[in-house]
Structures are given as C-alpha cells and as structure tokens.
Amino acid sequence: MQITIEIPDDIAHQLANTPDQLSRRALESLVVEAYRHRQISTAQVQRLLNLSSRLAADAFLKAYEAYQAYTLADLEQDLQALDLCVILD
Predict the structure, then answer these.
(1) Among candidates 55, 48, 10, 47, which has minimal Cα distance to 28?
(2) Each residue of 1-60: pLDDT tens digit?
(3) What local confidence, expressed as pLDDT, does residue 34 receive?
(4) What is the predicted pLDDT for the residue at 85?
(5) What is the torsional sign of CA 76, 38, 50, 16?
(6) Which pTM was predicted?
(7) Do 22 and 14 form a contact (C-beta atoms < 8 A)?
(8) What is the rounded CA–CA span in Å between residue 2 and residue 29?
(9) What angle, rounded to 10 degrees, do the helices at 54-63 and 19-36 form?
(10) How many angstroms separate the CA atoms of 7 and 52, rounded?
(11) End-to-end alpha carbon distance in the chain
(12) Using an 8 Å Cβ cutoff, are 38 and 66 in contact?
C-alpha cells in the first residue's frame, strides 16, 4: 500500500534533505509508534523497514527508545512457555 501526505515544502526541507529521506523518516515514525502501541511485532518492524535481522530491528527500536512494557501477564506467559520446554525435553 502506498500512502501520500501533503507537507509544505519549507517544512519538508526542515525535516529531511531529500524526498526519499522524508519518506523513510515518516515510515520509521509510523513503525515506532505502532510498535509502542503493540500494534505490530518486532518481526513486522524488521519486515516493514527491510532490516537484515532481528538484531537490526532491536537496534533500530532501541535507537528510538521504543520499548514495550513487560507486564506480569507477559512474565507468566514466558514462564509457562519455559515450563513447557522443560517438559518436552
């Protein structure tokens, strides 16, 4: 899907040197906010930004200080998954 936004030229030049840079910055901002709001996963961040690895996606998110809260429910789910792994081994 392609999305078009209208930005006054003077502001666009303040935000980026080229239209390609501006498009990339807009995409990165969208991805960061979607990740922060748990709308997309790290794997989807990697795919949307065409990053080479999960580590590259993690580094990108860290650079933008895009962290998701780790809740008690997340911990319980992880512990259950670990218990299942131990049982299967």
Answers:
(1) 48
(2) 888 999 999 999 999 899 899 999 999 999 999 999 999 999 999 999 999 998 999 999
(3) 96
(4) 64
(5) negative
(6) 0.73
(7) no
(8) 16
(9) 90
(10) 31
(11) 44
(12) no
CA-based torsion, 22, 40, 78, 75: positive or negative:
positive
Positive/negative CA dihedral, 53, 55, 59, 65: positive
For residue 88, pLDDT beyond 90: no
Tokens of 13: 């030049």
- The first and second tokens of residue 69, run together, are 């809260």
- 16 Cβ partners below 8 Å, 6+ apart? 22, 24, 25
Amino acid, single-letter form, for residue 35: Y
Give one DSSP letter per residue of 54-81, joined into a string. HHHHHHHHHHTT------HHHHHHHHHH
